[in-house]
Amino acid sequence: xxASQAIMSLTLQRERFDQLVEFCTFPWILSNAEEKTKDGRWxxxxxxxxxxxxxxxxxxxxxxxxxxxxxxxxxxxxxxxDASAAKTFKLKDMYSTGQHLAKELRSKPHNCDxxxxxxxxxxxxxxxxxxxxxxxTKDRFHELSEKKQELKMVSGIDLIFGGHNHDxxxxxxxxxxxxxxxxxxxxxxxxRLWEDHGLLIVKSGTDFNDLSEVLxxxxxxxxxxxxxxxxxxxxxxxxxxxPGWNLNEYESDSRLATMLNNLFEHQVLKPLKTPVAxxxxxxxxxxxxxxxxxxxxxxxxxxxxxxxxxxxxxxxHHPCNVIxxxxxxxxxxxxxxxxxxxxxxxxxxxxxxxxxxxxTSLVMCTMTGADIWGVIRAALAGxxxxxxxxxxxxxxxxxxxxxxxxxxxxxxxxGIRVTWDSKKDGQxxxxxxxxxxxxxSNVVDDKDHTYSVLTHQYLVNAGDGLKSFSNHKELVDxxxxxxxxxxxxxxxxxAEDAAGVLVNTFxxxxxGGFPENRNIFSIIGxxxxxxxxxTQDSNTNDWQDSTNFLESVAxxxxxxxxxxxxxxxxxxxxxxxxxxxxxRMQDLALGT
Length: 592
What we know:
Blueprint: H1 3-9, H2 14-21, E1 33-36, E2 42-44, E3 51-57, E4 64-73, H3 75-78, H4 83-86, E5 90-91, H5 94-106, E6 114-121, H6 123-133, H7 138-144, E7 159-164, E8 168-170, E9 175-180, E10 201-204, E11 210-220, E12 230-241, H8 255-272, E13 275-279, H9 292-295, H10 301-317, E14 328-333, E15 346-348, H11 349-355, E16 361-368, H12 369-381, E17 387-388, E18 401-402, E19 411-414, E20 416-420, E21 430-435, E22 450-456, H13 457-460, E23 473-481, H14 482-503, H15 520-529, H16 531-535, H17 546-552, H18 556-570, E24 574-575, E25 585-587
Parallel strand pairs: 4-6, 6-7, 7-10, 9-12, 13-24, 14-22, 20-25
Antiparallel strand pairs: 1-2, 1-5, 3-4, 8-10, 11-12, 13-15, 14-19, 16-22, 16-23, 17-18, 20-21
Helix pairs in contact: 5-6, 10-14, 11-14, 14-15, 14-18
């Protein structure tokens, strides 16, 4: 089982993870994390395996090969797990653990022919692992070795299969032979890493949009005192690109699968398919900027919209005992945004939940200016970087090779404007942080000035490695997950649009016309005042009888629900995204 799955599941509470893993029919492998047992020893996490050994038949007359599989988690991953879960185990160095386990598995009594590593790590960390454990083909290692060593004489890892970053990537030692997928969407390029001098790494992206078919050519080693009895001659990958893959196209004979599919279709998918809004006409060139891969790397249209929407929602739905300041700052990371498909013309409830799927609630807290600077510095330290020249790159690298981006820490903000320089070292990147309401007003980098910050529960507990968040004061928990807040924000737009929609269907509009102050109560009052006109209106025959309508709005909450429902029956609210980012996260290195 891929280590990535184990780590993503640790974003749940540890107790819940322990419950669910017992139902799995496949192994979970995590080699460099240990927990303390009742007798005081450090051991592999409960229900997980330190390694797994499998035998694979190579075909008639070719014998078999014994493969040792290890799972390695990077330090960056710890910051992505639930804070309470991360405290239940300690992490060992992935590089030394990988090298030690490779040697152990190749020795007696295991006698493995090959060692494959499943990782949950950044691109740079996988490259470092491959370089230190010599994940090369036989010929490439001989070319790189100063003493022209033979690969069979040194221990190490043969092939790395990685997760964590959401981009497809293969090391420069892997031959990319073919791509399958939609004719108009066949990606065949990805950035190389200048530290990669021929490594055998395969990372297949996210959300099962891509699967990699890997063909490994082996050669049996000859000689004595061998560290690798079998070496890799070549690795060929066919990339199967399947965006929007539909499992319904594949039938199953299993009665259980049929039952589960029916339950899923009617009890889960049906409400998720409920339309909640329409997307205003958006230029096609903006669609890539509305995907969440962009939000993980730089300022994006989708990120800015979510950030502003969270602030608008909180101003309207904050707890009654809370005073919302004029300058309310919102901060989260691009990794909080998940789906990687631009919206269609009609936005469904499931689209919003996919966008912000985590059940972490919105919170407001008080933070010092110094801690806000600390959060932004930490978030930008490993974020998008610049092109490197050929002189900086290693052998066989092309000009203008791009370094890879971070793992989703890029700040998504509202209420502030940040200038930073991606060419600077990590902690020196942030130049200015100003309040959006007053460009001349700085967020002061000291402990004396305090500000109100809106974020979510995971980050405020120092999630994603943003440790300065843990210094917060005066926490207010809305107990509302972000996806629910966003759905309510859209619902608010429906309510505000309701009077206009309903009144425009009346031949005789409500007495006094439409109110200038469009708060929800004045809207409802004017709608009700026009109900009698509606019953006589020839173009509203599809509406239910007004008497039934009045009976159903006996209390204000029901009244609002019915107004919104009636509005959406006639016309969904229109979401108008900005036509471009507004440079609230300005990278001086790019001049934008």
